[in-house]
Specification:
The protein is α/β, with parallel strands linked by helices. It is built from 21 helices and 27 strands.
Length: 641
């Protein structure tokens, strides 16, 4: 039986386990990346391991999230990360160099390599044929130290593409179509491989848009073949030597095959407040638009920006619309300036923001009250934009530009002839904003610079055999890490200060939760299906840990968040009978007994001491995860404490 692309990479990097779907495997990691919203904590964790030098082939620290420096906090974090990178052998991408996934695709990604990053959209690297996965900061820290990365062996979905995209229809529409088919839960437990004759019609930036959005399906990762298109992209970046061909075997077996005819797709939107709430542009043409944001790690490539510039050229945006454009990297911005496209964008009335994540994480450019904001981003969760009642739609760059001109949601196909763009054969290479680390002989002299906002991360305590605690919070389905630990310009500067950050925990759901949890001392949270979807931010586990949360009981968990909870020493448990969720009430006194035996057998008993009822729970952990929980989390387990 043949192998899929992902299975070939997994087989070449397998350290422990066997490739049976559902079993735990350990992978050797070639590359890691961090960004500054998660990086400070990841590097504090790496320091605590006590290793003098990273042991990966390549590790890069990017500054792209917390670039709004309205106080000392972000600047201090950046200084700390830069000093850590210099000391431990990590390349440092300075603020302004670009968004981590865009820059990594341009300058560092290699087909056939493994990559984990402390950002959930790390699967962007799958567009170039990498096995690229989002992970918690602790997992990245361990990988930098030479440790393996553990995942459950995924099943395989193949999306078979035929035809070719028509004018004004884009890779973003492919992403929204697969979200329409599968939903935000449909990719959980799978790797999605894109294949078929239609693949050859998609450029690497288009493929990267699709693998980036695969994160919203809950998939472990997404991947494209490495082919002649990949080779041409790498050669245009002056990295032709990094090319290796990768394809699935003709007799590879998939658990599910989905067919998409690219020729039949039309411009789509994801409506508030979920990436899988899909409608066509034709259906929504009556909706007035207040704001348009173009950029993010999903749609900020040179090709995307050139398309936008061509649509805007010689025109002026509607007076009622505020338009921002964020190029994905310094390379993209420079080349836009050199060819004159940047002037066309500025002349239209757009505001050009720096090469950073910006509005995607609520770091500036929030919409007006209840404002309709069209964004070429990957998430439209409630409140993520920085405006609590903002109405965020996810769209393609073409639809975004068209709507900015008319002031209404506009199918770009109504604009007339689609303007053609010409891509350069060679990209402009200037890596001066990537600072190389000190040599091993010089590293001992490098001082780590810590600001007053950088606080130690909370430490978990080893698992106890009995846990009695109140149910301090009950939430519904599809709770995201943005619900648990919000982003935004007011909160992100405190990502390295867990005590202060805790004040905002679950603020979108219940502003009184932090005070209630601290008063309880220890507590249990109950959630619905797909608990913890979205960002890989481990703060969504570390902050509840600080607040005394000992266990989370849910109908089901998102992969990365469940791993982050275990890493933090918090028990993630699921209802054996999902309807039991309805029988628990916030404020009930709960008790878990015989936990040592329960995690071995995979079955636990929950007693509601308030009502007298009892419930069966599933606690299906690998041997390694059991040891981690008993030790008090990943770091204690890694250090043998």
């Amino acid at each position: 039986m043949g192998l899929t692309i992902a299975q070939k990479i997994i087989k070449a990097h397998l350290v422990e386990g066997d490739m049976t779907p559902g079993s735990e495997i350990a992978l050797r990691i070639d590359q890691t990346l961090t960004q500054d919203a998660t990086g400070t904590m990841a590097y504090l964790e790496f320091e605590s391991i006590g290793i003098k030098r990273v042991r990966t082939e390549l590790s890069v620290a990017y500054i792209d999230h917390n670039t709004l420096q309205s106080g000392f906090e972000n600047a201090d974090d950046h200084r700390y990360i830069q000093s850590v990178a210099k000391k431990y052998g990590i390349r440092f991408s300075r603020p302004g160099n670009g968004i981590c996934h865009q820059v990594h695709l341009e300058r560092f990604g290699k087909p056939g390599k493994t990559l984990i990053g402390s950002d959930s959209h790390t699967p962007t690297g799958g567009g170039i044929g990498m096995l690229a996965m989002g992970a918690g900061g602790m997992d990245v820290a361990v990988a930098m130290g030479g440790g393996a990365y553990y995942i459950t062996m995924p099943k395989m979905i193949k999306v078979n593409l035929t035809g070719a995209l028509r004018p004004f229809v884009s890779a973003k529409d492919v992403s929204l179509e697969i979200l329409r088919i599968l939903s935000v839960k449909g990719g959980v437990g799978y790797i999605i491989e894109w294949g078929g004759e239609g693949v050859s019609t998609l450029t690497v930036p288009q493929r990267a848009t699709i693998t980036n959005m695969g994160t919203e399906l809950g998939a472990t990762t997404s991947i494209f073949p490495s082919d002649e298109v990949t080779k041409a992209f790498l050669e245009s970046q002056g990295r032709g030597e990094d090319y290796v061909p990768l394809s699935s075997d003709p007799d590879a077996v998939y658990d599910r095959i989905i067919d998409i005819n690219l020729s039949e797709l039309k411009p789509l939107l994801a409506c508030p407040h979920s990436p899988d709430n899909i409608k066509s542009a034709e259906e929504l043409s009556h909706i007035k638009v207040d704001q348009v944001c173009i950029g993010s790690c999903t749609n900020s490539s040179l090709a995307d920006m050139l398309k936008v510039a061509a649509i805007l050229k010689g025109k002026t945006i509607d007076p009622s619309v505020s338009l921002s454009v964020s190029p994905g990297s310094k390379q993209v911005l420079t080349m836009l300036a050199d060819c004159g496209a940047l002037s066309d964008i500025i002349a239209s009335g757009a505001r050009v923001l720096e090469c950073a994540c910006g509005p995607c994480i609520g770091m500036g450019f929030s919409p007006n009250s209840a404002g309709v904001s069209l964004r070429t981003f990957n998430r439209n969760f409630e409140g993520r934009s920085g405006t609590r009642d903002g109405q965020v739609y996810l769209v393609s760059p073409e639809l975004a530009a068209a709507s900015a001109l008319t002031g209404y949601i506009t199918d770009p196909r109504t604009l007339g002839e689609c303007p053609e763009i010409t891509m350069p054969e060679k990209f402009k290479i200037n890596d001066s904003a990537v600072i190389m680390p000190a040599s091993e002989t010089e590293a001992d002299e490098v001082e780590i610079l810590r600001g007053p906002n950088i606080k130690p991360f909370p430490e978990a305590t080893p698992l106890t055999d009995t846990l009695t605690a109140p149910l301090t919070l009950k939430v519904g389905d599809n709770i995201t890490t943005d619900h648990i630990m919000p982003a935004g310009a007011k909160i992100l500067p405190y990502r390295s200060n867990i005590p202060y950050l805790s004040k905002f925990c679950f603020g979108v759901c219940d502003e009184t939760f932090p005070e209630r949890a601290l008063e309880a001392g220890k507590s249990i949270i109950v959630g619905g299906s797909n608990y913890g979807q979205g960002s890989s931010r481990e703060h969504a586990a570390l902050v509840p840990l600080y607040l005394g949360v000992k266990a989370v009981i849910a109908k089901s968990f998102a992969r990365i968040h469940a791993a982050n909870l275990i890493n933090a020493g918090i028990l993630p448990l699921t209802f054996k009978n999902p309807e039991d969720y309805d029988k628990l009430t916030q404020g009930d006194e709960l008790e878990l007994v015989n936990l040592f035996e329960a995690i071995k057998t995979g079955s636990a008993k929950l007693f509601d001491k308030t009502t007298g009822e009892s419930f069966e729970l599933v606690c299906d952990f690998s041997d390694r995860q059991q040891k981690m929980l008993l030790a008090g989390g990943l770091l204690k387990y890694t250090k043998g404490e």
